[in-house]
Specification:
The chain is α+β, with helices and mostly antiparallel strands and 228 residues long. Helix content is 60%, strand content 12%.
Length: 228
């Protein structure tokens, strides 16, 4: 939790408040690095995954060739597997940091249906406030959901890749046809999250620079703080 204390100086018989302008850390280096590596890995996996999907569609549509990666089935699989290792290694670092440095506890908790409904009502009325480095209940819920979607996508992807060697995993997830649907729906959920995430960045562009620098400018006047 970030606390900002106003600085007071004496001016004659009365007390005035001096404004302070400083920068604070809102995104640690590990979070920033894993965020951008994850963004690259996910884009590669989505594009190559759509190429793999087109070879054997689950639904009566195919993704346009310009949105796919790999050029052909073999190429798409090669890109997909390469990005998978990058994504898994990056996820291990992120999860390790999130657990041992209490990043998950500090940023994603507490969370309750009451908080989510309250923030949802404010968001629908365009009154939901955003403070850099602090997640509202809707953001917390979305991040928790996308983490579980990522786990489902990786496990189902492994079951699709090695259905014989990972028979137990394949069976637990309902067999090969069910695993395909789990993988497709979990990746679709991740794509949906990306669309929402990018839309929010476009609406509130001041959130983007801090994902590069890690810091944001805080102007405090007494006990009031303004984030730039």
């Amino acid at each position: 939790m970030i606390s900002i204390v106003g600085e007071h100086i004496m001016s004659g018989p009365s007390q005035s408040v001096r404004s302070a302008d400083r920068k604070i850390l809102v995104h640690p280096l590990v979070v920033r690095i894993t965020h951008w590596i994850n963004a690259v890995a996910i884009l590669i996996m989505v594009g190559s995954g759509w190429g793999i999907y087109n070879a054997s569609p689950l639904l009566p549509f195919r993704f346009p060739p310009w949105a796919t990666l790999g050029g052909w089935l073999g190429g798409a699989i090669a890109w997909h597997l390469a990005a998978m290792w990058l994504l898994c290694a990056n996820a291990l670092i992120y999860f390790g940091y999130g657990i041992f440095r209490k990043h998950f506890r500090d940023h994603f908790l507490p969370l309750s249906p009451r908080f989510v409904l309250s923030d949802l009502r404010q968001a629908m009325a365009f009154r939901l406030r955003h403070t850099l480095g602090a997640y509202n209940a809707i953001q917390k819920l979305l991040y928790i959901v996308v983490l579980f979607l990522g786990i489902a996508a990786v496990l189902s992807g492994l079951a699709l890749w090695k259905p014989v060697q990972l028979q137990v995993l394949d069976t637990v997830m309902g067999g090969y046809p069910a695993v395909r649907w789990i993988h497709f729906l979990s990746m679709s959920g991740i794509v949906g999250f990306l669309i929402v995430h990018l839309t929010l960045v476009a609406i509130v562009p001041k959130t983007l620079p801090s994902m590069f620098t890690g810091r944001t400018r805080v102007i405090s006047d007494g006990l009031k703080a303004h984030y730039d």
